[in-house]
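Researcher: We're teaching a course module on how sequence relates to structure. For the next exercise, students receive a sequence and then see the predicted structure as tokens, so they can try to spot secondary structure elements on their own. Here is the exercise chain.
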Amino acid sequence: MYTVTCLNPIAKCGLERLPEGYQIVEDLGEAQAVLVRSASMHELELPESLLAVARAGAGVNNIPLDKCADQGVVVFNTPGANANGVKELTLAGLFLAARDIVGGAEWVKANKADENIGKTVEKAKKAFAGGEIAGKKLGVIGLGAIGVKVANAAVGLGMEVYGYDPYLSTKAAWSLRSVVKHAQTPEEIYECCDYITVHVPLMDATRGMLNKEAFDQMKDGVVILNFARDLLVNDDDMEQALKSGKVKKYVTDFPNAKTANMDGVLAIPHLGASTEESEDNCAVMACDELTDYLENGNIRNSVNYPACDLGEKKGVCRVAVFAKGGENVLGQVSTALNDLGVSIQAIAGNSKGELSYTLADVDKTLCDGCVEKLRQVDGVFKVRVM
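Model: And here is the predicted structure for the students to work with:
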């Protein structure tokens, strides 16, 4: 029925969700859908047959979103599917920063040949002493699926938690424990917190948001945790903040050539979502999104197209109309279908930026002439018939 290519290994439990008749193909040129994790698609030529890309994960910086949008290729991600895995590693980062567990473990390994290590360690361990996180103030910037889990868990560990998110969703607000203090600005968190963890997407407004200006407003000896995106932190400014003691420790899940060689950095090799459970959850969610779109044209969790859901196909035929820059596309599509003598049984539409997407269930299969008529609607550049 549909051809799917996997640019990365995808968990079996996800692929098993694809309906009977779906074919996994090796050649991207033959694919109607792509499943991807971390493989970069920026240099790939997208075939005309491609309908959708599903990223088994949250970040989509490895996918050319604008290029896909221009070709009517819907890009999905799986927000929240790996949230627990990232939450747990963030908590591990808190503990590793508070207590020099890594340094102590490395000392033991370096002195493993010492027959009296049991006694020697009693003198050496003071070099690795740390503090406790209970009673300390944690600032959580970004209260999405991951940030909320981190904030709630930190409350359970006895921390005083502050949260900041100007786009806090109703669902997240209901999920957040009531004792979490809501900061009105990031500066409120910078000024009072002992630990700061960032959980926001990478975009122009957040790129390099943790920089000298931000560090200057923080408490001396603050600990920064970054399990979101590498480029949220200005590495040059971080290096200076670590040297001055403004930042005591920087824990990041995104090592690069600079941070891997900086004193005061605890770099983890991008393990946030590297759990069996996260990979399974992401694969299942990605395959379900892909199937619903291919079969029904429904869009949920797309990063380049608006959400639009008509449920399962109800009419003889379902048509999806992609438009760019047109006005009142839904109304024009409805008028065009009526002019063609086609009865509309259900219709829905939505827009995102300059892109709009319309779904309609109709009482007859659309002929090529009808499809061409829809293409003449102002702004329409693609029509898909299911």
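Model: If you want an answer key for the exercise: The two ends are 12 Å apart (CA to CA). Residues 137 and 193 are 5 Å apart (CA to CA).
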